[in-house]
Design goal:
The protein has eleven helices and two strands; from the N terminus they run ααααααααββααα. The chain is mainly alpha-helical. A hairpin with a 6-residue loop joins strand 1 (about 160) and strand 2. It is elongated and about 80 Å long.
């Protein structure tokens, strides 16, 4: 008899707990929907965090990490899904890891995930990221491979944003690749290739007169050329 009572208590407690858990999930799903409608990002994050505790899923974790990343909260994004490459990473997870590690100035680690993004979906936008990161890491031949890919595959409607000015601006993606081509050529031999790099910058500037960073880079390269000539 005592064993039967104990069993009944356990079953009733379990049913109440299951019902309570289901109700909480419904509540936070409705709460999350309402927060999105209101444009309340922190409310959305809170709701998704509760849902992931109540009913864990990789899809929820990936989405939560993506929201963090979109808000510039890159460390929180990576704390949510980790930084290591996994075979079963979703496309969203790979993107979050790549972009967040880049934003946190971890180019070597970011490169791994951008490589995976490119394998899954080769396109000029990801190629630009790979070219830029490889230049930062002085992997000049790898950078050139992606620069050439970008120059061949960029479409006229593809753009790249730059932020060195107070007001951000966009230029054609092909022009952005030409900018990287000039940098790659210069890095390959800073003494011999300044003129050739400046020629590329000049040609690109004619196509994109508002490409501010090209003018800044050209000025710096010419300054370095003058310094070299003075030493000689």
């Amino acid at each position: 008899m005592r064993q039967l009572i104990t069993t009944l208590v356990f079953v009733i407690t379990y049913q109440i707990g299951a019902q309570s858990n289901t109700d909480l999930i419904k509540h936070f799903e409705a709460y999350s929907k309402q927060m999105r409608l209101q444009g309340d990002v922190q409310g959305t994050i809170n709701a998704m965090t509760h849902l992931n505790i109540l009913q864990p899923s990789e899809a929820r974790k990936d989405t939560l990490a993506y929201v963090y990343m979109s808000e510039g909260r890159h460390m929180e994004a990576l704390n949510t899904i980790g930084i290591d490459k996994k075979i079963d990473d979703t496309d969203i997870a790979i993107q979050v890891k790549a972009m967040s590690l880049k934003a946190l100035k971890q180019p070597e680690r970011a490169l791994v995930h951008f490589d995976e993004m490119f394998k899954r979906n080769p396109n000029p936008t990801v190629a630009y990221e790979l070219a830029e990161l490889n230049l930062q890491l002085s992997k000049l031949e790898d950078a050139l491979v992606h620069i050439n890919y970008g120059l061949e595959n960029s479409k006229p409607d593809m753009k790249r944003a730059f932020y060195e000015r107070q007001t951000p601006y966009q230029v054609g993606l092909k022009s952005a690749f030409n900018y990287l081509k000039a940098l790659q050529l210069y890095q390959k031999d800073p003494k011999k290739n300044i003129d050739a790099a400046v020629d590329i910058l000049d040609a690109t500037l004619k196509e994109e007169p508002s490409f501010n960073i090209i003018q800044l880079t050209k000025t710096e390269l010419l300054r370095q050329k003058q310094a070299q000539q003075t030493k000689e």
